[in-house]
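New to this. Help decode the following:
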Amino acid sequence: MWKEGGVLRHSLFNHSRFNCENLQKVPRLIREHRPGQIVNTLRFAYHALRGFPVTRLPYDPNWLVLLITARCNLHCYMCSFRNPQCPIPIRSSFQDMPLDLFGQILDTYPRAIVVELSGGEPLIHPRIFEMIHLAHARRMKVHIPSNGTLLAGKMEALLQAPVEILNVSFYGTDAASFAQMTGADGALFDVVVQGVAELARRRRAGGYPRRLRTSFVCSKDNLHLVPDFIRLSEKMGVDDVKLRNLRFHDIPGLPESTSLSADDPEVEEFLEDLRRQHFRIPVFLPRLPRQDDQRRCDHPFRLVAIDGDGFIGPCCVKAAKRCWGNLLEQANLWNGPAMLQARRVQTDPNSPLPPICRYCEERIPERPRLGG
């Protein structure tokens, strides 16, 4: 599975997003993106098919995760951003991303095909809709993860904004479970449900957002809520549901055993029960690592995260922070020392996985799907 010198062959190749199924998307890639973006994506695909044999990459990132705000109106217990018990909130200090920095990032990486506007709660950012239109004008697909609490006040703008995927993360299936998971007023739960349902109802055929998705972070503590969540999502009229595995972040009161594992009979029994049920919309199941799983991740080979102060990070989970470098101060950070080291960790089987990687479902190659 490994070549000498730690050059990855099959393990990372099997995990790459650019697999045979993605090859079927090449016509859409050619139709919807600029020549430079097309060539860059195909270069990424070529290196993915070879198992990423080098760490200094001859292509640019094709996915930008832009942390446009650190602010959020919830305090979710599983979130290292805003959990009040977390001793070191890992991304709580950067400013809202200025529009000129956003433009500079797009100028630096014009060959990216996806821009994820994240946070914090990205809909808090006062200029998010300008950002959406700027990225769309460059033929970049815009993805937005949101907690959904602000949808009602931004409904008209959302229906006009060229957003490819709007993912509304749910925390609970009723007011009580929502309040328990978020530390917020349980009345906000109905606000989110009504906002999603109205957006789904008013969205015209072929309109925006192109895909309206709901997601739910699964843990050993809330598996019993999942069927109700899926049924609720069906009633709201969304396109699909994504169930995510809880990422263990060493947060007080959140033990490792809370995350789902493929070695756990209780988890497997739960998934088997879900498979026996019929759902009208697609349901994407959590990716489940095994305790001895050492598979590596392709994130440092395909994306870069950048926060509102210009600091970068090698994936969507690890913090964008000073140790990785700053876009405003250094050139070619995509192939800078920190990113090269992050890639070496992912290609060297003798290099232990960081704890935050061991519990990250992004290492698992495929996400099983039900229904639809």
